[in-house]
Amino acid sequence: MTHPVRRSLLLGLGAAGLIRPASAQAPRAATVVVPYAAGGGTDITAREFAQLFAPETGQTVVVDNRGGAAGQVGSVSVARSRPDGTTLLFAVSTNIVVNPHLQKGERLDLATALQPILQVSSYQYVLVVHPDVPAKTLPELLAHIRSRPKGDLTYSSGGIGNANHLAGVLFSEAANVEMEHVPYRGTAPALLDVVAGRVTMNFSSPPPALALVREGKLRAIAVTGNHRITALPDVPTLTEAGLPNAVITGWHGLFAPAATPAELMDRMEAAARRAAATPRFLDRLAHDGLEPAPERPRAAFAEAVRQESAYWARKVKELDLRLE
Q1: For an engineered disulfide with 193, which of 67, 69, 77, 198 has Cβ 3.0 to 4.6 Å away?
Q2: pTM for the full model?
């Protein structure tokens, strides 16, 4: 939450770019699009990654926030950009596998319109509440929700189809509770209204929530993965806290337009792997409550993305999720 709100950040200069357009005499800047406003979890992780990715490519890397439609605007802009390695997407999983199934009118299957360079992180969500909420454990929170009139308690998200919206939907389904969803234009304002007491809870990615939990401005009830996170060792998983088999996770990944040549994809993947494996980045992941991505070839990640997209195509219909 301490990162300044700014549209772009120039990171790293080099003489010999790995991602050099064929017609250029010197490497042009590469733009990494974050499809959200600055200050949210994806933006924080993207900026930390870009600082290390830039020297590995030998280029200037510009982080550009293009928010709108829960990440759809920025994601589609990259899919339709020139496939020359100068415009990339730093995505959260829902940008690619959920949002396209929620769109009305023109639809673009981002699981095929984009191709993954590398999965950069894995993460789970942190269920946080305002400190005045009379619940310190998950059973107490569920009892509190069930004791109130339908729609009286709320959870916020960075927009319909956003990762923390879907985490809230899956949690409500698993716990058989009903809460009112309050969408915002980005994770940062959604979380700050929980701090202000205007919203009851949020299912946040760890980076923007951890500092607020440590400062006592939010209370962490549970994490949503299959194990505790080192940044919050005293906070149980949903399963440990009494909600069996409730595991909700996500990931960050770097993507390029689908027509990007294989040789260029190979070079970008190698640079991204080196950046993601640096001790500095691994330390930042741990500090922010994130985890390294699993080791797997680019093709295996692409197949996993297609399978997730097919799952959410079914789930969106089953849950009757729609843009409001």
Answers
A1: 198
A2: 0.81
